[in-house]
Amino acid sequence: MAVVTNLDPKRRKTTPLDDLTALVSDDLSAVNELILRHMHSPVELIPQLAGYIVAAGGKRLRPVLTLASAGLCGYRGENHRMLAAVVEFIHTATLLHDDVVDESDLRRGLASANAVFGNKASVLVGDFLFSRAFELMVEVGSLDVLRILSRASAVIAEGEVLQLQTSNDTETSEQAYLEVIKGKTAELFAAACRVGAVVAGRPPAEEVALYDYGMNLGIAFQLVDDVLDYSAKQAKLGKTVGDDFREGKITLPVVLAFRRGNDEERAFWRRTMEDLEQADGDLERAQHLMARHDALRDTVERARHYGAIARDALGLFADAPVKRAMLEVIDFVIDRDY
Amino acid sequence: MAVVTNLDPKRRKTTPLDDLTALVSDDLSAVNELILRHMHSPVELIPQLAGYIVAAGGKRLRPVLTLASAGLCGYRGENHRMLAAVVEFIHTATLLHDDVVDESDLRRGLASANAVFGNKASVLVGDFLFSRAFELMVEVGSLDVLRILSRASAVIAEGEVLQLQTSNDTETSEQAYLEVIKGKTAELFAAACRVGAVVAGRPPAEEVALYDYGMNLGIAFQLVDDVLDYSAKQAKLGKTVGDDFREGKITLPVVLAFRRGNDEERAFWRRTMEDLEQADGDLERAQHLMARHDALRDTVERARHYGAIARDALGLFADAPVKRAMLEVIDFVIDRDY
């Protein structure tokens, strides 16, 4: 067995996202330096808290998309690095506020910033990072970029408020859920890609193509994230499962299982997701009902639909290693372990 | 008596701030329309919550300063109206987040937005208003304005975090307190005034003059606000007194009373402000100690110092009704009922 697993270690260890990241690795190192430099403040708690969440890591998916999009557009300057840092600042600010709003204690398996530093500091440092993002955009000096990212920020907030309005409502429609995830997740993916074309001075058609790629990739990403929260395989891998269930967060797997369920099942969903009356075994029952109605499988199918649109969006770009990597990331996002 | 009070109703009913507001009243009506129009969103909770806090009113002091500053610079266009709306959006966003951070139930005697709509919605709608402010600045299209207001927003957040760091620390120095209020209050006053010169295309010296006017007016304003929170006269007028005391918020009256007090008095301040162990009569004792050490009187004296700087900052502008009104507002801010 040891021989077999060693035969092709690359196959086992790198993902298409790693490959895409490798293509922009020099730029990404520069972005990480920019992030560290610009989250500095004489008020110590700011770099402390921001450093905590930035170091906690994540995949830097959004800045990688900005760098890759600029690369796809043949950009040869350095402004895309600052824009990638800006995108990560906006993302980090929304994470900080999300965790306060969701009352989360954990993020990526670590104590969340609000759990360590308190809600107050998380709100204010989020505001700081958000303001700093705009300061950095002004340094780059493109009103088009400012327009795209200020619009994206407003749309993200709208998506989050919409999620608050629909929270714990089992009758949420698939369309309403889609509006939520377009705002809270996909819009920043879309804007991150679009500014890559803007910084390269490419024509509107390429801007739109990259926006559409990011938007549909972002929708697929969030759909699969929502599946993973109920995935038996995730549980086997030791990852947290059931966070959305415990919060009564209405995601597409719940929307589908509720709509396809009988009266008794709907009563279960109302009790657990609306009234948040949950007992031992309820998460397992939820997973069972989702399996019965193919709710997870069909959510992944929906993700494939958006993935296909993302794929076609890149059609007008010539073949290139970065394009191939961006296409492979679509499938990777959809076929993550679930 | 009735005859006497009726002799000069204007004298009794209008303040210098009313007079300044009257000078820009047409513009201010337009600003109010812009505010209502641009806080619109298809996500209903956003205009509901934003409308609640915007309608709750306040004096629109900051937008009035933008309009007056543009007027002082002889501006004849309409972009100052949008910038005044932007300034009010940023102010409103920080109020929403402040109330969450301070866990306030009341604002200006009414239930605060977070008390009515919840902390979550307040955080997210604050984010929305903040993003919308940047969208509107992009519409105006001045990178200088964007630079000033993105910087101001970051400084505000720094001031708020600094306040969090020094909260409940009775050994806070006057200098540290000053840094807090410069950030959390005075920077937006300063930026609001400065963009009036920028939109009018005036030379740097006038920009700086208006920035200094706003900065020092803002410091004086906050100092007097902090005095009013302990003022016996405020209590007689039926206004809330003692909010800062109950929160253990360290303001200059406390800093001075603590430094000028004996060991037994310092123990009192530590118990009430650091440990937040407060009993009936403690607020009265705090007021008594402040009176013994002239802490309120001297805080007002400090405010006069900053007011004097604000006055001289306007020296290079020619005499005009709007200039006179801006100068009178300084004294008014300092001599509000305390």
UniProtKB/TrEMBL annotation, chains A, B:
Domain of life, source organism: Bacteria
- Organism, scientific name: Azospirillum oleiclasticum
Q: Does the keyword Metal-binding apply?
A: yes
Which CDD domains does this UniProt record tie to the protein?
Trans_IPPS_HT
Q: What is this protein called?
A: Polyprenyl synthetase family protein
Q: Which PANTHER family match?
A: ALL TRANS-POLYPRENYL-DIPHOSPHATE SYNTHASE PDSS1, GERANYLGERANYL PYROPHOSPHATE SYNTHASE
Keywords, sorted A to Z: Magnesium, Metal-binding, Transferase
The protein's required cofactors:
Mg(2+)
